[in-house]
């Protein structure tokens, strides 16, 4: 009996990751762990927030007992902000982080990032967005120049593939079969770059001297 495989779908989420001030010196090894976990780092910047900016970022925590200590901690030195992307980025990043309280994380999730790099319930080393809507707001806060365009999913993704990707890929594979190069992967990659239908093209303006 023929097994019906589900049609592949494209669905990429974005989430915000912060390497907090007390572990900025571990930036390189944390980034390596992020990349090995299947994330792409779309945007990255190092910055230092003022206490006022921290208050605005954590506005939903305003009024809680730990709020003054939180803003003081987050403004105590430079931090690294990153936009991460992958399938189900929000939930996967939260899973990689572990519980927000690093002491509890060390007991229950010893291999999580907060267990490894965190100190206590306040100094927990890393931040992750709680939801997709929160991620959009936080990314806009840390990267105000970034335009968050909606990523196509489901039928919209299939329509995009059929309209823009498959025709170019089919033409490239046909040319590859005719050419039969020694290194087909590199040849196809170069062909796709050269024949990218979305590649910007410089428009040549005819000057008055050329016209004459």
From TrEMBL:
Known InterPro entries for this protein?
A: Dpy-30_motif (IPR007858), NDK-like_dom (IPR034907), NDK-like_dom_sf (IPR036850), NDK_H5 (IPR012410), Nucleoside_diP_kinase (IPR001564)
Kindly indicate whether the keyword Nucleus belongs to this entry. no
Q: Where is the signal peptide?
A: none
The record's subcellular locations are: Cytoplasm, Cytoskeleton, Flagellum axoneme
Source species: Cepphus grylle
UniProtKB keywords: Cell projection, Cilium, Cytoplasm, Cytoskeleton, Developmental protein, Differentiation, Flagellum, Hydrolase, Kinase, Spermatogenesis, Transferase
Gene giving rise to this polypeptide: Nme5
Query: What Gene Ontology terms describe where this protein resides (cellular component)?
Result: cilium
Q: What is this protein called?
A: Nucleoside diphosphate kinase homolog 5
Q: What is the lineage of its organism?
A: Eukaryota, Metazoa, Chordata, Craniata, Vertebrata
């Amino acid at each position: 009996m023929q097994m019906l495989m589900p049609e592949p779908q494209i669905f990429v989420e974005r989430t915000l990751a912060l390497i907090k001030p007390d572990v900025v010196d571990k930036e390189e090894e944390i980034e390596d762990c992020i990349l090995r976990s299947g994330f792409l780092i779309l945007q990255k910047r190092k910055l230092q927030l003022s206490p006022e900016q921290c208050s605005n970022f954590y506005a939903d925590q305003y009024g809680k007992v730990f709020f003054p200590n939180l803003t003081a901690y987050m403004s105590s030195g430079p931090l690294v902000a990153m936009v991460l992307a992958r399938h189900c980025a929000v939930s996967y990043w939260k899973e990689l982080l572990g519980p927000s309280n690093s002491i509890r994380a060390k007991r229950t999730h010893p291999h999580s990032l907060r267990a490894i790099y965190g100190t206590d319930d306040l100094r927990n080393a890393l931040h992750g967005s709680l939801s997709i809507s929160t991620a959009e707001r936080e990314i806009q806060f840390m990267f105000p120049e970034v335009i968050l365009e909606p990523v196509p999913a489901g039928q919209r993704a299939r329509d995009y593939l059929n309209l823009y990707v498959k025709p170019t890929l089919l033409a490239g594979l046909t040319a590859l079969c005719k050419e039969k190069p020694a290194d087909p992967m590199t040849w196809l990659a170069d062909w796709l770059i050269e024949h990218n239908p979305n590649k910007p093209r410089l428009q040549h303006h005819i000057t008055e001297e050329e016209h004459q």
